[in-house]
Amino acid sequence: MFSKTFSILDVSYFYKAKLLSKLCLIGESFIFISYNLIYVMSDYFNWSDADRLSPDYFQTFNFIYVTLILLNLLHLTYSGWVKTRPTLHNTYMYASLTIYVVTHSLLCHLLGELSINTGIMMTASPLIGLILFNVRGVIWGALVGSTMVIGGLVATLTGYLDYAPLIDGAYPIYQNTAFILFTLAAVSPHVLIVLLLGYHTIQNWKAREALSVQNAETDTLTNIPNRRKFGELMGLAISQCKHKNSNLGLIMLDIDHFKQINDDYGHLVGDRVLNGAIAQISSSLRHSDVIARYGGDEFVVIMPGASLKTVAEAAERCIKAIRDTSIEVEGEQIKLTASLGVTSSQISSKLSHAEFSRQLIKVADDALLVAKKRGRNRIQIGMLLDDDERAEFTEENPVITD
Asked: How much of the chain exceeds pLDDT 90, in percent?
């Protein structure tokens, strides 16, 4: 999902330059076709001179745009040759930017350097550049474009060029039907490109943000919530159980002798052990239960709405599933066992959610320590007392035997 979202913005500047050239070619072709179509329409419907495009510039416009289209096609044709020569990628990028800027600077002159159309294109072009390229490339494009637009304006003021030469200067620009239609046709590709790239950039940012959050909250080895995410999930479970006036159950689970497995067989085997244990634990839980990695070989299971009996039954399923698990290493079977500390309690009205969470975790963790001291491979039940400050541990607890 994320790789598709990143596809355009994560490629090299060479591929972005090629994309820009393709967009420019599409825009040039659209403008060329639109111009000629509008020109033909004005003849066909016999529009007045005030509503027509200037016939004096017809051949010049077509010559300019056919030249630009052919230049862009040649530029794209050579992209395959440039692709195999990384040293030319930067040059290709600047060439693409130059063709794009020259194309649109000429269009600005045709529509009038001081028109709103020029303003839209002069704003859109740097935005496209900032999305696709580095600042140096944008500065280059801005310098070329500004020089051409300002040069055209100066030439207009000094009488060397006509202002907005597509129409007859004797008539008001914004009352000219053909000019308005061509303006819409000329500006629409820029607006569309900016909107599409802007949308893609926002989606790209959202996807990156989601991926960043996921990475920050997920254990990379086991692909389950990490300790940071566990704290958030614990808070949500406490709120849910308090609202429903139900118990919140907790299981703390530790793989027995995991350090010895790492020392004897290596960390890769240790990783297989953790993932194998997670698979067995997950299959033994309810759909509403959540398992998280608490640290090292220690895992914690949140069980909303679970009584102490329900938690103990789930713990028995987990420890049996783990005892049935073995990891084969070079023909040798590594048998697994685990120690579990379990507890369940109503949400305390005397404590804040954070303090209650700390107390419940401590009871389950202390129960786990007792299970280890009493020989491992067993379940120890801990109960939070009414004063919310002390816990007690039963003398008799479920012990899985052969």
From this structure: 57
Q: Name the token pair of 375.
A: 């020989």
What is the mean predicted confidence (pLDDT) over 320-347?
Answer: 92
Going from the C-alpha of 173 to that of each of 76, 118, 176, 221, the distances in angstroms are 36, 14, 5, 66
Over residues 33-47, mean pLDDT: 91
Question: pTM of the prediction?
Answer: 0.61
- Distance, CA of 163 to CA of 112 (rounded, Å): 6
- Choice between 171 and 145, residue whose per-residue pLDDT is larger: 145
According to the model, what pLDDT value does residue 188 have?
86
Return the amino acid letter for 100: Y
**pLDDT category of residue 172 using cuts at 50, 70 and 90:** confident
Q: Does residue 42 register a pLDDT over 60?
A: yes
Task: Fill in the amino acid letter for 401.
Answer: T
In the chain, the amino acid numbered 387 is D
The tokens for 296 are 């090292």
227-393: what fold? Alpha-Beta Plaits (3.30.70)
Q: Is 400 helix (H, G, I), strand (E, B) or coil?
A: coil
CB atoms within 10 A of CB 334: 17
Q: How far is CA 315 from CA 133, 174, 237, in A?
A: 56, 79, 19
Q: Are 52 and 178 in contact (CB under 8 A)?
A: yes
CA pair distance 255, 201, nearest whole angstrom: 45
DSSP label at residue 292: E
Enumerate residues 6+ apart whose C-beta is below 8 A from 41.
47, 178
What does the block give as tokens for 195?
Answer: 């909107």
SS3 166: coil
User: Would you list the DSSP string of 180-248?
Assistant: HHHHHHHHHHHHHHHHHHHHHHHHHHHHHHHHHHHHHHB-TTT-SB-HHHHHHHHHHHHHHHHHHT-EE
Per DSSP (E only), the strands in 318-384 are 326-329, 332-335, 338-346, 379-384
**Taking a C-beta distance cutoff of 8 angstroms, is the pair 93, 83 a contact?**
no
Q: Which of 149-163, 164-178, 180-194 has the lowest mean pLDDT?
A: 164-178
The whole-number pLDDT of residue 204 equals 81
| Domain range list for the chain | 2-217, 227-393
Using an 8 Å Cβ cutoff, are 348 and 275 in contact?
no
Q: Report the DSSP beta bridge partners of residue 327.
A: 334
Token pair, residue 346, equals 């109503």
> Helix or strand or coil: residue 394?
coil
